Amino acid sequence: MTKQSQKTPESKFKIFIWTLFDLANTSYSIVVVTFLFAVYFKETVASGEPIGDLYWSIGTSTSMIIVAIISPILGAIADYSAGKKRFLLFFTMICIISTALLYFVGEGNIFWALLLFIIANIGFEAGLVFYDAFLPEITIPKNYGRVSGYGFAMGYVGSLASLAIVFPFIQKELIRETFPVSALFFLVFAIPLFIFLKDSRKDVIRTESFAVIGFKRVFNTITHLRSYKNLAIFLLAYFFYIEGVNTVIYFSGNYASTTLGFSMGELIIFFIIVQTTAILGSVTFGIMADSFGQKKSIVLSLLIWVFTIIIAFMTSSPDTYLVKMIASKFDYDVGQIQKDSFYFVGLLAGSVMGATQSTSRSLMSKLTPPDRKTEFFGFYSFFGKSSAILGPLVFGIISFTTGSQRVAILSIAVFFIIGLAILSRVKDPQTETKLM
Question: Which of 70, 85, 226, 305 lies in the 20 to 30 Å Cα band around 210?
Answer without folding.
Answer: 226
